[in-house]
């Protein structure tokens, strides 16, 4: 049985996979089982921050593999402690909790927000406002938080206490911020929703309102974080201080890791026994993340911004393109033709691109070589113009 047939037979049908059996990767290049090479403008889904099988990352992970692969969170391990310190030092957050995915990072944020409010105000202040068209994950709580009705069709009843506000509509948010609200949660660039950045004025007004009413501001940086948009975290481009930041995707450069960063208000909210994770922060993933985060510096961010601007400039005026949105190397392309068909045509021509809603989505490795990027964009432009 070949790989595609075996997969179709034995793996749950939750993914619409493209006909590519990936076998090897190096940087922005992915090789299939037949020896064909593809330029990857997706990095997984924004996961391979430095591309596939980055040398320094391999060295860091391999060194750790030979030292200690796992021990439970009942004990201390060095990579986890060092990573926590690095993340706090670079963000100004006070403490972090490690899980294994974006959904788990958001679960922790939801629990933490509710406990903060319960500790301080008692029952009845547990509502979390999320935005229409948001995406926060696929577990029951994060799905309840996700503001997309289409994803809610089959799975009710949902967790209570989530309401949606339309994005970029401050009066609507203000009207919902009643005495029963403990948190507002948002992505600064709605990723799965179509790569839509929120207005700066809206985000800053929302942050101010939250601070005035002791409503926690949770910023979901699962996709926008870890250098993706040209700063370490995207909130750094807004004049805000989130109470909780969640991240995952690119954090550990290809290994599963999620992180919930806790600000001053909530640093001690989660006490012993109130939350946990068996695998969270395990030494291998933490060593991978250390290798990534320690190399995310101003020189790289400036490269990310420059490459993002290059892609925007190339595509904004290209045939078949209606608009380009996004920040840094997180870009959405509204196309005249069907994005799913275009993505398949790109793949046929050797370029991997993603989609989000009805758009094409690009999340290339942060360090993609300029010549690889140029080659891929020219192929993409050719496909768009057909
Ligand atoms: C991908 C994503 C998630 C979910 O992450 P998983 O690792 O798939 O659980 C949550 N929030 C945002 C903004 C995402 O892009």
Short description:
The protein has helices at residues 3-10, 43-46, 55-67, 78-91, 102-121, 140-145, 170-176, 200-212, 283-293, 298-316, 339-348, 370-385; strands spanning 22-26, 29-32, 37-40, 95-99, 127-131, 162-165, 181-186, 189-190, 196-197, 216-220, 244-247, 258-262, 321-327, 330-335, 351-352, 354-356, 359-362.
Question: How large, in whole angstroms, is the Cα Rg?
Answer: 21 Å
Question: Helix/strand/pairing class, anyone?
Answer: alpha/beta
Q: What is the helical fraction, as a range of percent?
A: 25-40%
- The overall average pLDDT, rounded, is 97
Strand percentage lies at 15-25%
Overall spatial form: globular
Helical stretch tally:
12
Element order, helices and strands?
HEEEHHHEHEHEHEEEHEEEHHEEHEEEH
First-last Cα distance: 36 Å
What does this structure look like?
By secondary structure, this protein is α/β, with parallel strands linked by helices. It is built from 12 helices and 17 strands. It has helices at 3-10, 43-46, 55-67, 78-91, 102-121, 140-145, 170-176, 200-212, 283-293, 298-316, 339-348, 370-385, and strands at 22-26, 29-32, 37-40, 95-99, 127-131, 162-165, 181-186, 189-190, 196-197, 216-220, 244-247, 258-262, 321-327, 330-335, 351-352, 354-356, 359-362. The protein has a 7-stranded mixed beta sheet, sandwiched between helices. A 4-stranded mixed beta sheet has the order 1-2-3-15. Strand 16 and strand 17 form a beta hairpin. Helix 10 (298-316) packs parallel to helix 12. The mean pLDDT is 97. Pyridoxal-5'-phosphate binds at residues 101-103, 106, 135-137, 187, 191-192, 220, 222-223, 248-249.
């Amino acid at each position: 049985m070949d790989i595609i047939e075996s997969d179709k037979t034995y793996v749950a049908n939750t993914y619409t996979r493209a006909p590519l059996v990936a076998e090897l990767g190096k940087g922005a290049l992915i090789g299939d089982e037949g020896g064909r090479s593809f330029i990857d403008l997706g990095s997984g889904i924004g996961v391979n921050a430095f591309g596939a099988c980055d040398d320094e990352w391999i060295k860091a992970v391999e060194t750790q593999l030979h030292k200690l692969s796992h021990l439970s969170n009942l004990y201390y391990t060095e990579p986890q402690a060092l990573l926590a310190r690095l993340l706090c030092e670079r963000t100004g957050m006070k403490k972090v909790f490690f899980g294994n995915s974006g959904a788990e990072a958001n679960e922790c944020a939801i629990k933490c927000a509710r406990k903060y409010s319960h500790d301080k105000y008692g029952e009845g202040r547990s509502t979390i406002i999320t935005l229409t068209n948001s995406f926060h994950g696929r577990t029951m709580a994060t799905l309840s938080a996700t503001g997309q009705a289409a994803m809610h069709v089959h799975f009710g009843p949902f967790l209570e206490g989530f309401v949606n506000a339309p994005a970029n509509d401050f009066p609507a948010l203000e009207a919902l911020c009643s005495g029963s609200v403990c948190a507002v949660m948002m992505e600064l660039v709605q990723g799965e929703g179509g790569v839509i950045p929120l207005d700066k004025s809206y985000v800053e007004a929302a942050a101010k309102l939250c601070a005035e009413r002791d409503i926690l501001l949770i910023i979901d940086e699962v996709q926008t974080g870890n250098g993706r948009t040209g700063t370490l975290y995207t909130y750094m481009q807004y004049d805000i201080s989130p109470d909780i930041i969640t991240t995952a995707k690119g954090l550990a450069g290809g290994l599963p890791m999620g992180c919930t960063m806790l600000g001053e208000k909530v640093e001690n909210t989660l006490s012993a026994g109130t939350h946990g994770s068996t695998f969270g922060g395990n030494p291998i993933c933490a060593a991978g993340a250390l290798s990534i985060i320690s190399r995310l510096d101003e020189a790289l961010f400036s490269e990310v911004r420059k490459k993002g601007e290059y892609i925007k400039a190339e595509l904004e005026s290209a045939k078949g393109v209606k608009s380009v949105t996004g920040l840094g190397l997180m870009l959405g392309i509204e196309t005249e033709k069907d994005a799913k068909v275009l993505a398949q045509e790109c793949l046929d021509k050797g370029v991997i691109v993603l989609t989000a809603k009805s758009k094409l989505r690009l999340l290339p490795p942060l360090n993609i070589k300029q010549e690889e990027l140029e080659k891929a964009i020219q192929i993409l432009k050719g496909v768009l113009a057909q």
